[in-house]
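Dear H.,

Thanks for agreeing to be a second pair of eyes. The structure we're designing against is below in token form, covering all 224 positions.
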């Protein structure tokens, strides 16, 4: 943790000035001990088991940081083929990687479909594009929930005007389409936005995810 020691800013008692002199600037310094502690706080705070935590690659794609997270049994969430390559380079195994995104090319869809990672689709069209690959036997659905968010929300992704995710009213059609193609819908995923500081909105989103999850065919239920 960053603190002051003898009028010097330090991280874990190492003066930041000395780090800047050794490695030059700009320089990013991470406190791995603090990261470990925060990870334990999160795990201890969530009673549900089995529990899998996924780090969003878009938040920080520093390879050294991702390698450390992988060693701590944290999984990873990626949104682009480039992030998938970064995750694989950092040592994440296929069963540790979840991907969802938009505007994938045919070659990118094929790459993902054959990689053994967990796939989550954003739309009915994307569901069809992935299920045309014989390797795809199961998929998750990304949902755009019908909830109202505070005005200060950044990148809101809810309701019919959302740029990502299936509207709630399309979920049953997606499930039926997948069933006809012998593809299992094995979970739901939801992103509602950022800069949301009120827990009530997350509680409502979780309730929505659980309600939507109940619409699909019986299976091992997961909420991503």
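And this is the sequence the design step returned. I haven't edited it by hand at all.
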């Amino acid at each position: 943790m960053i603190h002051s020691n003898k009028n010097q800013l330090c991280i874990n008692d190492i003066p930041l000035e000395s780090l800047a002199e050794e490695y030059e600037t700009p320089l990013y310094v991470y406190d791995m001990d603090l990261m470990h502690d925060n990870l334990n706080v999160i795990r201890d705070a969530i009673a549900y088991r089995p529990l899998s935590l996924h780090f969003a690659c878009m938040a920080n794609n520093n390879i050294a940081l991702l390698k450390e997270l992988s060693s701590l049994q944290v999984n990873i969430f990626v949104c682009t083929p480039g992030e998938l390559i970064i995750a694989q380079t950092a040592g994440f195994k296929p069963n540790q990687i979840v991907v969802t995104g938009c505007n994938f090319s045919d070659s990118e869809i094929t790459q993902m479909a054959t990689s053994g990672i967990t796939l989550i689709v954003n739309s009915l069209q994307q569901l069809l594009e992935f299920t045309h690959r014989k390797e795809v036997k199961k998929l998750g659905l990304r949902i755009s929930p019908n909830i109202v968010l505070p005005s200060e929300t950044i990148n809101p992704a809810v309701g019919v005007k959302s740029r990502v995710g299936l509207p709630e009213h399309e979920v049953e059609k997606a499930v039926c389409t997948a069933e006809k193609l012998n593809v299992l819908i094995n979970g739901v995923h939801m992103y509602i936005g950022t800069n949301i500081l009120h827990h009530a909105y997350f509680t409502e989103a979780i309730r929505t995810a659980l309600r939507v999850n109940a619409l699909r065919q019986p299976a091992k239920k997961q909420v991503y």
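Two observations from my side: The chain has a mean pLDDT of 89. The radius of gyration is 20 Å.

Warmly,
E.
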